[in-house]
Amino acid sequence: MSRFHLLSEAGAHNAAIAMSQIIGRPLRLDVRWARTLPLEDVADLAGGASRVVCALSLKVYGDLRGHLLLLFSREQLPLLLDLVLPRAGQAAARVNGLQGMNEMERSALLEIGNILGCAYLNALSRLLGVSLLPSIPGLALDMVGAVTDHLLIDLAAVSDTAVVLASEVQEPASGLRAEIFFLPHPDSLGVLGRTHERESEPRVATKSRGR
Amino acid sequence: MIRPRSLRAGELRVLPAPAKLVIHGLGSCVAVFVYDAGTRVGGMAHILLPGPPAKDTDHLGRYATTAVAAIVEESIRLGARREALCAKVTGGSRMFSVDPGTARPTVGDKNIEAALQALQEARVAVVAHDVGGEHGRTVLADLSDGSLTITTVRGEPRVV
Fold first, then answer.
1. What is the ipTM of this complex?
2. pTM metric for this prediction
């Protein structure tokens, strides 16, 4: 799975740069894991099926198909909105559901999805030499099980397992965390396999170790 | 206090009272709960897709067609009477409205339709349903009274 780690790290590294530029604070990158899971275990990957999260979901098209899921804890949503919309102030503190959010807050979250998603995918695209086209993000404030259902449905038609690339970026001062999950479609794993040869090229390997 | 048995994606289970079955965070997937109030035997499935691609018999709970057939069969095996079985259906949300073709049926819609169709073919009456929408549901089936309690992240739990 080492090539998946490499991809996961590169994607998250790029997303961390983008995120730190949005909120104007340095971020720490914490690569957690890349592994193959039975489908039914996928909902457990982010703190259990009942955990309530703010989820941004992007479908990935192109040479490598898949799903990208960005998660923030519900508890951290006011903090996130405060960082990206400094003037939102107390307004953000009342947010406990999507209905409670105003248009500006919703679109700020969608924009974060766009930027982090594109940053992540750009890194993969560069490493793999393939083109990746993200959809516009979808936004939901709901249980992890509910926001991962569509991933399982997509995968279940062709596979019993899911390859999951997981990483996490954190802003140390506030503790704000973004969890990033990339689930390549099983039909696209051949494309990921191609990195295997690239991995052995010293140029790419050195570059990634430097991160 | 009975500890509910959790059903993950694609799982199904049939039990007698006083067991409880729960699905946490149901989104576009569909839950079908089949129950005989007389013998208090029934089961629930956490369904992902309308039907199996080929002859996939390993994952009965994953598909609406095979899940309904399996619950009915297993319930009867545990003592339920076929003619007394009734069903409650929930789930099938559209969690993210990112697909541009919003008019066409979503996978949630197709799952609901397939589940209802399979129940009709099995001659099991649907006595309650709470389907669609843009929110997740946690679903608790109580075999002691046949109730299905649906909880969302907003609002009060609903018992059907």
1. 0.90
2. 0.87
